[in-house]
Design brief:
Length: about 150
């Protein structure tokens, strides 16, 4: 699907505030409510809009301790990768997991209450997964930029 200028503006508006009504969006885009509705449905059908979410303030729910854990597996076989990935997606503390190139195999973004909770997570959940060779943890000092808006 090729995105026109209106689609791009619509996506930006929805990424900034997905709770806007089609009427509000239609006023922003100078289109009819029906036209906006149809564009949104098409973006959803095409998989360009993947889902709608509420962004939670981690500190307000006692999950303000953010850790980036770099992880190496003991081997890089398909079996080891598949097994690790199927297990790590089950860990609720892991918000994001990326298979990467370089010195490490994966980078995980983990949120917990505090250092003690992270140690407990590391010892009782993460390092018990099979095929992990080593981990390296980096702790967030402050969040400089965090966005989910993709510039299209």
């Amino acid at each position: 699907m090729t995105l026109d200028l209106i689609d791009k503006k619509l996506l930006k508006l929805l990424q900034t505030n997905s709770k806007k009504t089609t009427k509000e969006l239609s006023l922003d885009l100078n289109l009819s409510v029906t036209a906006v509705y149809e564009r949104i449905k098409k973006l959803e059908r095409e998989g360009i809009i993947d889902k709608y979410v509420a962004v939670v303030n981690k500190s307000k729910v006692e999950k303000g301790f953010v850790v980036f854990c770099h992880l190496k597996l003991i081997q890089h076989t398909k079996e080891f990768l598949t097994k690790f990935e199927s297990e790590v997606v089950k860990l609720k503390e892991v918000l994001e997991c990326y298979h990467v190139s370089g010195d490490y195999d994966y980078i995980l973004k983990i949120v917990v209450k505090d250092m003690e909770a992270y140690r407990e997570f590391l010892v009782t959940k993460l390092t018990i997964l099979q095929h992990i060779g080593s981990t390296h943890s980096t702790f967030m000092i402050s969040e400089v930029k965090s966005t989910s808006v993709v510039d299209v």
